[in-house]
Amino acid sequence: MKHSLIIFLAGAALLSSCKSKKGGTATPVYAPITEAVFAPGHIEAGGQFTLTALNDGYITDVPAKEGDTVTDGQIIFKQDHTTAAIAQRSATENLAIARQNAADNSAVLNQLEQQLHTATEKLANDLSLRDRNARLYATRSVAKTDYDNAELAYQSSLHNVEQIKQNIAATKLSLQQTLINSRKEQETAIANSSYYDIKSPGNYTVYNLLKKKGDLVRKGDALATLGHAGSMLITLSIDEASITKIKTGQTVLTELNTEKGKTYTGHVSKIYPSFDEKSQAYTVEATFDTIPPGLMNGTLLQSNIIVAHKDKAMLVPAACVNPDGRAIVKRGKQTDTIRLKTGIISTEYVEVLGGINTDDKLIKAY
Question: What is the pTM of this model?
Answer without folding.
Answer: 0.65
